[in-house]
């Protein structure tokens, strides 16, 4: 055999220009290959070149490979392979093709008189094999220019070749026409040329890569058998097929076996003792099953339909509820709420009175885009810090409080913290302000050692969370979150500092009744992304009151101006800092700084009493909280609900101090307001946590896919990837399968192919949530 320099270098570019999908062929073979370091190996993924135009850089690479032949990927191209050695019959079969399709100028000869006729498919279809004839179509290929392995000579094109005829100029054929030719042509094949065994034609042992489970599904086996005709096959093939069907389907396959057997003229003939019925009873299959049937069918052109499941075990799993079904059902039922506007803030919540009201009004007056609800959160933290270590409830709850203010970027959420800082500076209360960033847990504790009541206002709180939580957080950053959680519960006791070996330079510092108030502003995506899936269960999220604005981008305030808090507001803030009781006369030095509190000072807070009416309301609401907690016990909601009474009491305490710091008493209005606000925040966080948080990595992927499709509309897999769902092909398949099989999304056809780039894939659209299910779920949540 003569080694040709490279057929690819000689013909590849021209064939590609004529519109053909070109692939490299191994020297001396008929299969696609690739060359690396002069060594040729089979190219199993060659079919990826079939669905798009061949690119010039690919030809440039392949033409450098020694001896590289040229193959044509079928799909739009169709090849009729006439593999007969009788010259007269080969011509007869060619004439039949001309009669049905018209004459094709492109006829290829490898080993005469065998030949291949080339046509163009109007619509691509699967091929079919009926030895010695084969229709080469979608997913198959043939050699156009190379050395034939049997003759040692180049393939020839007696008339025109594909180099001379562009793809668009080939005669067009339909699947029905081609299959009609195959039926008529096969009828002309003499009996001695037809195979008498399935084994000679089927895939070699070990070639089938399907499921190891021998069991198949009835629909798949029935479909495959249509491509394996029983044309008086030999006895071994007959028994082999029977064993494969029985291993695949058990007794359910008996009728398929009988129908397939009786395709042959000799089956059940008079006088024969070995009938299909009798043989079925004696079959004892082993080492064979559905995979063998599928392999023989695929060899003959069967393409398993996408809607058919091949493996019985997979079908049984599909019949069972999907592992994510319950999770997705909950998502589907609540999607009406998830897609709705944020829960509206009741007007009564925005009217707390006292210093809280004054702070909110100053924030609203001076803001370019007023956010009164977020301003209320900032005001609560400010009053809580000033009242730290001076007031408590009868159950020893303090005014330390953590709030996360959530709004989209550009919505005005950063204005309230600036107003609070300005008010504290003008009132000479800056000692209550912590830094605007926290570098480490030790840094935060050092701040509290200097002054044990501090307000920390952190911008970009979601990004801050991302650096202090999770397994990859540096130790000094992770300490911040850990210390915040501990400080929250130490407000009525002693925070005992860290023990160091060097007692002289690093003595332990204890902080008596520390009061940390924390206010962080963040966008929804960064906030929920930063929280781990277990944040609801471990209580981290429960310590925060989450304020979600009901208007992401408020109307512009044309009266916005410089922050200039009135003197009355500043005096009210200083009165809270002085604490309970009639304040002493200040003489003519009202602005002299009060001596800062010592970290080791043991304060004696004033216990703020409840009025009789307030106590009755408190008891009733605590009973309601207990009932709610029992309903959600053991679920991720439990931690949020279990903190509800504590948060409501703290809010009522702060509201009472805000109204009258000298003689505070929690009234019916204070308690009602505190519970209303605490319940609003709890329902908001429970609703949004279902949307953004998940307890497993798979649920996180489902959540993210739903969020992306819901936000951007119909999305292909490529769209999902580019919009943030970075998954492998297998992981994508699992997510899409879960969404579609559980009715959360539907697959829609791809848009028309423009002919440029990769053909578009199907798109996925969310199903409209079931309003009845949503209503039921909402009622259940209540």
How would you explain this protein's 3D organization?
Helix 5 packs parallel to helix 9, helix 11 packs across helix 23 (668-692) and helix 12 crosses helix 14. The protein folds into four domains: 7-183, no CATH class; 218-319; 351-691, Rossmann fold, CATH 3.40.50; 696-781, Orthogonal Bundle (Arc Repressor Mutant, subunit A), CATH 1.10.10. The termini are far apart. It contains 27 helices and 21 strands. Helices cover 41% and strands 11% of the residues. With 782 residues, it is α/β, with parallel strands linked by helices. Strands 5, 6, 7, 8, 9 and 11 form a six-stranded mixed sheet that branches. A hairpin with a 2-residue loop joins strand 8 (128-130) and strand 9 (133-136). The model is unreliable at 200-211, 335-340, 584-595 and 770-782 (pLDDT under 50). The radius of gyration is 39 Å and the shape is elongated. The longest helix is centred in the C-terminal third of the chain and has 25 residues, at 668-692.
Largest sheet: 6 strands, mixed
Number of separate structural domains: 4
As residue ranges, the low-confidence spans are 200-211, 335-340, 584-595, 770-782
Mean pLDDT: 83
Supply the helix-strand structural class: alpha/beta
Which word captures the global form?
elongated
Under the CATH scheme, the architecture of the largest domain is: 3-Layer(aba) Sandwich
> Looking at the chains present, what oligomeric state does this protein adopt?
single chain
* Estimated helix fraction: 40-55%
Q: Could you name the CATH class of the largest domain?
A: Alpha Beta
**Overall number of strands:** 21
How many alpha or pi helices? 27
Q: Could you name the CATH topology of the largest domain?
A: Rossmann fold
End-to-end CA span: 83 Å
Question: β content, as a range?
Answer: 5-15%
From the alpha-carbon coordinates, what is the Rg to the nearest angstrom?
A: 39 Å
């Amino acid at each position: 055999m003569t080694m040709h320099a490279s057929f690819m270098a000689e013909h590849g570019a021209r064939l590609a220009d004529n519109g053909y999908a070109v692939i490299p062929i191994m020297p001396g073979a008929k299969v696609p290959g690739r060359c690396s370091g002069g060594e040729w190996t089979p190219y199993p993924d060659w079919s990826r070149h079939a669905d798009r135009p061949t690119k010039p850089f690919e030809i440039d690479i392949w033409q450098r490979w020694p001896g590289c032949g040229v193959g044509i990927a079928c799909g739009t191209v169709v090849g009729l392979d006439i593999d007969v050695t009788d010259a007269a019959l080969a011509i007869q079969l060619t004439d039949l093709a001309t009669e049905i399709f018209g004459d094709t100028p492109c006829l290829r000869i490898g080993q005469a008189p065998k030949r291949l006729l080339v046509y163009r498919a109007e619509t691509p279809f699967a091929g079919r094999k009926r030895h010695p004839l084969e229709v080469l179509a979608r997913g198959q290929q043939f050699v156009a220019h190379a050395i034939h392995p049997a003759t040692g000579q180049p393939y020839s094109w007696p008339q025109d070749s594909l180099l001379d005829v562009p793809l668009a100029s080939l005669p067009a054929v339909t699947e029905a026409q081609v299959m009609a030719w195959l039926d008529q042509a096969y009828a002309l094949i003499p009996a001695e040329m037809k195979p008498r065994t399935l084994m000679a034609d089927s895939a070699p042992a070990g070639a089938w890569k399907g499921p190891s489970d021998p069991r198949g599904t009835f629909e798949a086996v029935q479909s495959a058998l249509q491509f394996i005709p029983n044309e008086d096959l030999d006895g071994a093939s007959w028994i082999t097929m029977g064993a494969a069907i029985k291993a695949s389907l058990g007794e359910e396959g008996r009728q398929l076996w009988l129908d397939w057997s009786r395709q042959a003229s000799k089956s059940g003939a008079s006088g024969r003792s070995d009938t299909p019925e009798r043989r079925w009873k004696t079959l004892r299959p082993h080492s064979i099953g559905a995979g063998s049937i599928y392999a023989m069918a695929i060899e003959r052109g069967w393409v398993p339909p996408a809607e058919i499941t091949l493996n019985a075990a997979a079908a049984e799993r599909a019949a069972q509820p999907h592992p994510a079904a319950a999770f997705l059902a909950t998502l589907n039922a609540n999607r009406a709420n998830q897609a709705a506007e944020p829960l509206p803030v009741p007007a009564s919540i925005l009217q707390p009175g006292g210093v809280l009201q004054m702070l909110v009004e100053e924030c609203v007056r001076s803001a370019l885009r007023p956010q009164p609800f977020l301003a209320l959160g900032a005001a609560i933290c400010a009053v809580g810090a000033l009242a730290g270590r001076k007031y408590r409830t009868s159950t020893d709850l303090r005014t330390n409080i953590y709030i996360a203010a959530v709004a989209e970027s550009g919505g005005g959420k950063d204005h309230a913290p600036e107003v609070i800082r300005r008010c504290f500076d003008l009132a000479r209360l800056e000692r209550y302000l912590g830094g605007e960033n926290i570098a480490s847990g030790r840094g935060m504790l050092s701040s509290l050692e200097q002054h044990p009541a501090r307000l920390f206002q952190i911008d970009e709180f979601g990004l801050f969370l991302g650096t202090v939580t999770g397994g990859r957080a540096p130790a000094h950053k992770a300490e911040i979150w850990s210390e915040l959680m501990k400080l929250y519960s130490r407000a009525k006791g002693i925070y005992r500092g860290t023990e160091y070996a060097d007692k002289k330079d690093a003595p332990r510092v204890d902080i008596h009744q520390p009061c940390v108030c924390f206010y962080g502003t963040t966008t929804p995506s960064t906030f929920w992304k930063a929280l781990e899936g277990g944040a609801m269960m471990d209580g981290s999220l429960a310590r925060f009151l989450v304020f979600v604005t009901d208007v992401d981008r408020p109307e512009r305030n044309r009266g916005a101006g410089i922050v200039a808090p009135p003197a009355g507001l500043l005096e009210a803030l200083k009165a809270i800092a002085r604490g309970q009781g009639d304040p002493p006369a200040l003489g003519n030095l009202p602005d002299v700084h009060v001596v800062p509190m010592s970290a080791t000072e043991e304060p004696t807070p004033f216990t703020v009493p409840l009025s009789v009416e307030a106590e009755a309301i408190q008891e009733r609401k605590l009973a309601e909280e207990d009932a709610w907690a029992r309903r959600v016990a053991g679920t991720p909601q439990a931690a949020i609900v279990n903190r509800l009474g504590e948060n409501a009491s703290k809010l009522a305490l702060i509201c009472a101090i805000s109204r009258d710091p000298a003689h505070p008493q929690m009234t019916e209005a204070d308690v009602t307001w505190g519970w209303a606000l605490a319940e609003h925040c709890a329902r908001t966080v429970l609703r949004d946590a279902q949307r953004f948080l998940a307890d497993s990595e798979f649920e996180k992927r489902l959540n993210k896919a739903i969020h992306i499709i819901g936000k951007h509309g119909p999305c292909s897999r490529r769209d999902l990837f580019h919009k943030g769902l970075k998954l492998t092909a297998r992981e994508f398949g699992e997510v899409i399968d879960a969404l579609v099989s559980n009715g959360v999304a539907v697959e829609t056809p791809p848009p028309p192919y423009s002919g440029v780039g990769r053909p578009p894939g199907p798109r996925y659209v969310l199903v409209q949530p079931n309003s009845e299910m949503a209503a039921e779920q909402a009622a259940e949540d209540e």
